[in-house]
Amino acid sequence: MPILSDCHLHSCFSGDSDAPMEEMIQRAVSLGLEGLCFTEHMDLDFPTGPQLPAGYFELDTDAYQDALQHLRQKYEGQIRLGFGVELGMQPFLGEKNSRYASSYRFDFIIASTHLVDRMDPYEPAYFEGRSDEEAYRRYFEETLTCMNAFSDYDVYGHIDYVIRYGRFQDRGYCYEKYADLFDRMIDHLLENGKGIELNTGGLRKGLSQPHPCLPFLKRYRKLGGEILTVGSDAHCPQDIASYFHRAADVLQECGFSHYCTFENRKPVFHRL
Q1: Which of 83, 86, 81 is nearest to 35 (CA)?
Q2: How deeply is 200 buried, as exposed, middle or buried, from its count of CB atoms within 10 A (0-12, 13-18, 19+)?
Q3: 8 A C-beta contact, residue 147 and residue 195
Q4: Are the C-beta atoms of 9 and 231 separated by less than 8 Å?
Q5: Alpha carbon distance 176, 185 (integer Å)
Q6: What integer pLDDT is reported at residue 169 of this predicted model?
Q7: Domain count, the chain
Q8: Could you give the maximum distance between any two Cα atoms of the chain, in Å?
Q9: CA distances from 3 to 6, 22, 240 (A)
């Protein structure tokens, strides 16, 4: 079976997207998808700059919820629409993120690391003065710290996001170089009943594998991991469900027979 639900996408309610929600939905319907889960950005205390005013990644959740509810009614019977959020992690935000997460009846919460030491790997400055390997390792250290600081999420998103922006991206990148950190991440996720996502966004950036890399997926599955969502990380309609054919092949290669969607913060399993 193909993957028929995209569980990571952004509309104009996210600071880095201009896409109307309805255009995203219409694209998904035209592709024959059965479900979408919007996961708008909520990154509290994101550093400001010339192109990033204060609150750029802070979600107007009430307006988002109202718009989604209207569209749920309009497209009822055509596609399932989930109310999700992508929470940006920083170690000192655990309590604030917990209060926010419990303030709304989300279907799905992705936790993601977008900042390390107050810097986004998207910016070249993050890599200045250190090798890709050093920059990647620092990112993975911070991700593990964030996992330990916040627990009210369902899956951890694009776990190796940082490699999208390295000088050499995933050339020379392998699980073994960071196994001391990756093994601890997987153990933590499994011990706490958390899942991961297969994020195809990196493939659009020129990577040879989705996020996370195949050895990470294989080890997560080997150790009993079953909770896994699939998301395109689309910020515009044409990227919805991009590379999902590749994702289905990758999951089967890694030993998965199902993928998940979420409703009311509970996983729903779908056979591949």
Answers
A1: 81
A2: buried
A3: no
A4: yes
A5: 14
A6: 95
A7: 1
A8: 54
A9: 8, 21, 12
The enclosing domain of 49 has a CATH number of 3.20.20.140
Token duo for residue 53: 């005013």
In order along its 272 residues, the chain shows pLDDT tens digits of: 799 999 999 999 999 999 999 999 999 999 999 999 999 999 999 999 888 999 999 999 999 999 999 999 999 999 999 999 999 999 999 999 999 999 999 999 999 999 999 999 999 999 999 999 999 999 999 999 999 999 999 999 999 999 999 999 999 999 999 999 999 999 999 999 999 999 999 999 999 999 999 999 999 999 999 999 999 999 999 999 999 999 999 999 999 999 999 999 999 999 99
Tally of CB atoms within 10 A around 43: 24
| Helix residue spans in 51-131 (DSSP H) | 61-74, 94-101
Instruction: Tell me which residue range forms the domain holding 22.
Output: 5-271
Which amino acid is residue 266, in one-letter code?
A: K
**CA atoms 242, 244, 246, 251: torsion sign:** positive
**Phi, psi angle pair for 208, to nearest 5°:** -85, -15
Q: Of 71, 156, 46, which Cα lies nearest the Cα of 108?
A: 156
Q: The tokens of 123 are what?
A: 């910016």
Residue 20 CA to residue 127 CA, distance in Å, equals: 34
